[in-house]
Amino acid sequence: MEKLKTVSGKNVETIKARPYANHHQFLIVGGGTAGITIAAQLQKKLSKPDVAIIEPSDVHYYQPMWTFNGAGVFHKEKSKKLMKDVMPYDVAWIKDYVVAFHPDQNIVETDCGKFFSYEYLIVAPGIQVDWDAIPGLAENIGTNGICSIYSYNQVDYVHECINNMKKGRALFTQPATKFKCGGAPQKIMYLSSDTWKRNNILDDIDVKFTSAGSVIFGVEEIKDALGPVIERYGIDVKLLHNLKEIKADEKIAVYDILKDGKPVDEVELEFDMIHVTPPMSSPDFIKNSPLADAEGWVDVDKSSLQHNKYPNIFSLGDAGSTPNAKTGAAVRKQAPVVAGNLISLLQKGKINDKLSYDGYGSCPLITGYNKLILAEFDYDNNMTPSFPINQAKERRSMYHMKRDLLPLMYWHGMLKGRA
Question: Where is the FAD/NAD(P)-binding domain (predicted)?
Fold first, then answer.
């Protein structure tokens, strides 16, 4: 209770009903691909909406380019823009971290101790990269041949490792957890192998793909198409191998051998170079919130992307509980569903039953320089091709689409609410 003023000589006690610093019609958590895209679409589809984005970063990255950066196709600077330059016009940018959600009060709490209320909340903070989950990784990344394209600061070292490799063993890992850009561990392996093949040293390099998964790719047609690629480079595929430790000084990678998702044995592999795809998870502030499901992801309906408990909350992008591949292409299909359902909820009091996300994901699998297999698929791993061609085939045209056209579509299409 706070005494705010005196009327006719008497103290009038007034309850502060809204203990927050600001209020917004649409509050978005996260200024990555999903957050900027949905903000731009709301701006285009509504007349002067009140939209705010909570995002602490000064820089916005086009992360799909990091594979090319690591392979030396582009300088890494091409993958970034200042956050202020990608924020949609007239969107309020709250430069802060979210630390807690209070969905029963429609309030979000930030690291600076501020409270922001909302009518509708869109949760899109992306995925958390857990470098510390593998002992020996975080403290040694960037040294001893230990590299990863999953960090902007590390992609130059990936390129250095590829170029310095003349003989020996190169390991490429894929974790047991969910992770963004499911094809990236293979893409950088194929580009590395093609580099070594062009330099006539591939026969002197033992390339191993160590994956915690049980198949090389979940879509049958794409798995079959990758067989000849793996054979061409002489790659030794070791499935059900989950990296659990790196002994950097000894250059040894320690793996759990999995059966039915559980460790049943252990193996050590020496390496001269190891490209690590680190374990990932839902951000901690999501895991520890009322919004999370049992696994820590934002608990949403997989078709409508509406929260299963709080109808004025939606989630898209990597932090949601939807069982699709975590890709930017998924966001491109999710954003119109979320925007349409929010507008329908705002104007009609209910979501639009005709709007549904089918789990679409796209994985442009770079299989070498000027070679790419375009995998597009839904929740059930059915192929959903965008082009009237056999996409389960290496094509130069698809490589140039990935390299030259998709970045333009991202910066000038998705982030502008046009695609």
Answer: 25-143
